[in-house]
Design goal:
Largest sheet: none
Order of helices and strands: HHHHHHH
Shape: globular
Radius of gyration: 16 Å
Structural class: mainly alpha
Number of strands: 0
Amino acid sequence: MVSKSEEAELNRLESQVENGGGGAWEYLTQIRKLKVRRSDNVVQFGLPILSDPKLGDDEWTLYEQVAVAAMDCQCLDVAKDCVKALQKKFPRVKELVGCRHCCLKLRDCGMRQIKLTLASWRTIH
């Protein structure tokens, strides 16, 4: 549950970003931290900063956040591009591929991919 002060801070950051005052990374970080769902904003404000070299390793966290938000918004081309970038860096992101398939109405294929991935993780760990 999000406290009133956390919600106020999130709303302040959202207003700042929407009005061109910067702070998109802080806003997206706050969304992740509070585990709130603002998928449209994540896609809108996350895409432009994906190529920022200052992100370093946080780039991959942002790719995942934008990919999931894009699936939620049915921005499937964006989700596809993010998942492809993640697959190049981390070949074991098959559960995101499964989620994307579910979004594409390929539910059986997507669920099969998720189950196979989970089963393979159980045998490794």
